[in-house]
Amino acid sequence: EHQTSAKEDEARRVAAQSRGRRVSVSAEADKSTEPFVPKVVPKTDEQLTRIKAAVAKNFLFSGMDDEQANTIFLSMEEKHVKAGEVVIQQGDTGDYFYVIDSGEFDVTLQKVNDHKTPVFHYVPGGSFGELALMYNCPRAASVTCTADGVLWVVDRPTFRNVIVDSTRRKRERYEKFLDAVPLLENLSAGEKSQICDSLMPCSFEDGEKIITQGEDNFDDMRLFFVEDGKAIATIIDEAGVSVQVGEMSTGNFFGEKALVENVPRAASVIAVGPLKCVAIDIAAFKRLFGDSLDFLKSHISTYKTVEQVQAEASGQ
User: How far apart are CA 15 and CA 141, in angstroms?
Assistant: First the structure.
């Protein structure tokens, strides 16, 4: 499920196991032979503005064209929920996808011993319910409203015919690119497909700062893969001098240190010329890499410190 926060490892394992039978979104074919007729729920301009704001940073909408996005927006139904209301029950069949307009929601995982473990907290701008629809698996956890709010609801036929189709096309675009990323070389085709589903394209101009040293807003943090172009990593030393400590080009990645270690950004990253990247937000990162962080930690250990760079520059 998608949201800007971190899941516990066990919740990620359960979700991964639930969708393990499906190596990609396209593996599930809808059984209905009826032609898809888009649902239209009349909306005011104010409602459409709220919907667009709610999905602005949602990876599932990043690969859509205007027509697809409009179809989804028009199909959404507004649902008001009260604190204490259970929106999703673990183990149930998935019929709906939810985008959060307002309110707060907690995810709990029901363990074998009947103990409910809190594993996730949703806030406005997040969404949940996509995994069961994308991979035809039972709900991996329960979602309960903790503060009165509003959800935008997408039914299964619309989700499958619009969002999944958009996701499939996005995956086809990025699969070859990911095959050339050394970080992902040991992942299976199915795992790479799931990463493709979560990628969000982003572009930067020459000199634009992508990451700023010291940033600690984890909700907005992302892992970046360089699709085309170059970027440099810099650190401000104790004297206030900017020191270049790294350089990234096509196929390289950056931004993982803060996500893995749960610490503020250790360096700034700046585009050198036009830069095209694809990014994974923190929720998708935790979901997809949560059980495989050792190789990332090993990579992080190779990063040069300011002292090492300055020593090399002085010939020591």
Answer: 8
Q: Give the Å distances, CA to CA, from 306 to 68, 98, 99, 215.
A: 47, 45, 43, 18
Residues 6+ away with beta carbon under 8 Å from 65: 166
Residue 301 has what DSSP assignment? Answer: T
Q: Which pLDDT band, with edges at 50, 70 and 90, does 79 fall under?
A: very high
Are 5 and 120 in contact, with CB atoms under 8 Å apart?
yes
Give tens-digit pLDDT for 34-54: 778 888 999 999 999 999 999
- What mean pLDDT is predicted for residues 185-198? 80
Q: Give residue 271's Cα distance to chain centre.
A: 22
Helix 164-179 × helix 189-198 angle, to 10°: 120
Is the Cβ–Cβ distance between 247 and 304 less than 8 Å?
Answer: no
pLDDT of 20: 38
Looking at residue 316, its pLDDT comes to: 57
Give the integer Cα–Cα distance in Å for 117 and 126: 20
**Whole-structure pTM value:** 0.58
What is the pLDDT at residue 291?
61
Instruction: Specify the 3-state DSSP secondary structure of 166.
Output: helix
Q: For the CA atoms of 134, 139, 141, 146, what is the dihedral angle to 10 degrees?
A: 90
**Residue 259 near residue 4 (C-beta atoms within 8 A):** no
Report long-range pairs for 46-52 (Cβ below 8 Å, ≥24 apart). Answer: 47/78, 48/73, 50/101, 51/76, 51/99, 51/101, 51/152
Q: Which residue has the tokens 């069961």?
A: 132
Q: Percent of the chain beyond pLDDT 90?
A: 39
Q: In whole angstroms, what is the distance from residue 203 CA to residue 220 CA?
A: 16
Q: 247: buried, middle or exposed (CB in 10 Å: 19+, 13-18, 0-12)?
A: exposed
| CA proximity to 71, closest of 53, 51, 86 | 51
Q: What is the dihedral of CA 195, 198, 201, 202, to 10 degrees?
A: -110
